[in-house]
């Protein structure tokens, strides 16, 4: 489950006038690397891209990208389709389903780790840092404009 910044952001804004912004690293990694894959939906995900390439760039030699463990969520018979440890799809709509990850993802990954590369990871990291470097000053200006409007 992702950290829910709303639980903190609201009170900080009300009590202290602070504006909270977040950049979720893996969502940002997916965003800045979409053009680097022929089949993004087929490789992205837990235990797959862009995480694997980023880890290969940060920790050379730490990952064995040739592992052949089972990939993907369990496909059970019936109308409830598991899409993550916390979600399922029923009748075309995503519903909450809170499960132990190892129960629905026995191999530990649903993304494709075999396409990872340190070179791609370095490029993704460079793009992520570049994005953050552009975002942070704009976010600060945004917060300052909000503060000026409160006076």
Largest sheet: 3 strands, antiparallel
List the helices and strands in order: HHHHEEEHH
Morphology: flat
Beta-strand fraction estimate: 5-15%
- How many beta-strand elements? 3
Q: How would you describe this structure to a colleague?
A:
46% of the residues lie in helices and 9% in strands. It has helices at residues 6-16, 25-33, 40-43, 51-58, 101-104, 118-150, and strands at 80-84, 87-90, 93-96. A hairpin with a 2-residue loop joins β2 (87-90) and β3. α2 crosses α6 (118-150). The protein starts with 5 loop residues before the first helix and ends with a helix. The model has no long low-confidence stretch (mean pLDDT 82).
Tell me briefly what this model is.
The chain is built from six helices and three strands, in the order ααααβββαα.
Q: What descriptors fit this protein?
A:
151 residues, mainly alpha, 6 helices
Write the layout of secondary structure elements.
Blueprint: H1 6-16, H2 25-33, H3 40-43, H4 51-58, E1 80-84, E2 87-90, E3 93-96, H5 101-104, H6 118-150
Antiparallel strand pairs: 1-2, 2-3
């Amino acid at each position: 489950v992702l950290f829910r910044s709303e639980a903190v952001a609201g009170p900080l804004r009300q009590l202290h006038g602070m504006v909270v912004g977040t950049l979720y690293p893996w969502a940002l990694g997916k965003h800045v690397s979409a053009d680097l894959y022929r089949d993004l939906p087929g490789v992205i995900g837990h235990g797959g891209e862009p995480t694997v390439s980023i880890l290969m760039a940060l920790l050379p030699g730490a990952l064995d990208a040739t592992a052949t463990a089972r990939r993907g969520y369990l496909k059970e018979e019936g109308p409830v389709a598991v899409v993550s440890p916390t979600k399922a799809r029923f009748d075309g709509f995503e519903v909450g389903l809170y499960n132990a990850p190892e129960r629905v993802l026995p191999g530990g990954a649903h993304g494709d780790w075999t396409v990872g590369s340190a070179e791609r990871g370095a490029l993704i990291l460079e793009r992520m840092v570049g994005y953050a470097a552009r975002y942070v000053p704009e976010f600060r200006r945004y917060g300052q404009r909000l503060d000026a409007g409160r006076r």
